[in-house]
Amino acid sequence: MARDDPMMRFRAPQELKSKIEASATENGRSLNAEIVHRLELSFESATPRELFSGGKRSNFSLEFAELELEECRHAVELSKEILADTELDTQSTEMDRAMAKFEVRRAERAVVAAERTVESLRKKRDSKPSR
Questions:
Q1: What span, in angstroms and rounded, lies between the C-alpha atoms of 13 and 39?
Q2: 84-103 tens-digit pLDDT
Q3: In Å, how far are 54, 55, 58, 77, 119 from 61, measured between CA atoms?
Q4: DSSP collapsed to 3 states, the chain
Q5: Whole-angstrom Cα distance, residue 27 to residue 15?
Q6: Fewer CB within a 10 Å sphere, N or C end of the chain?
Q7: What is the C-alpha separation between 78 and 60, in angstroms, rounded?
Q8: Residues 6+ apart with CB under 8 A from 25
Q9: Angle ∠(53,119,22) on CA atoms, nearest 5
Q10: CA–CA separation, 128 and 122 (whole Å)
Q11: Interval 7-56: pLDDT, tens
Q12: What is the pTM of this model?
């Protein structure tokens, strides 16, 4: 986004704002970037609700969530490698090491969230009566 992109002002309940702020922090985005990201997702072929609700596209939802989980696990591995390299690098600063550790923790939290999503979608799938 550029500074010359149009500005939009809107009101939202405090609870929603808090949720977006928490999500932005977890995803390493600014509040504005998180809002834009979520809005862009809403215009893709499958809505976020369809992807995660287990609705009419429940198999796709589970497949999508499982792929997301694998990507999150891969991000943990990569961030741990970067942390190890940072700790070995004699020229890295304390800030470099702290940021690398932060990225590992952030990636690990993303794995936990993705695991919960997969578990929830599997339960929904398994609880549906077979046709």
A1: 17
A2: 999 999 999 999 999 999 99
A3: 6, 8, 5, 25, 12
A4: CCCCCCCCCCCCCHHHHHHHHHHHHHHCCCHHHHHHHHHHHHCCCCCHHHHHHCCCCHHHHHHHHHHHHHHHHHHHHHHHHHHHHHHHCCCCCHHHHHHHHHHHHHHHHHHHHHHHHHHHHHHHHHHCCCC
A5: 18
A6: C
A7: 27
A8: none
A9: 70
A10: 10
A11: 888 888 999 999 999 988 888 888 888 888 888 776 665 555 555 554 44
A12: 0.54
Query: 């809505």: which residue's tokens?
Result: 47
Q: What are phi and psi of 8, to 5 degrees?
A: -125, 135
Measured distance CA(7)–CA(32) in Å, rounded: 10
Query: Where do we find the tokens 């891969």?
Result: 74
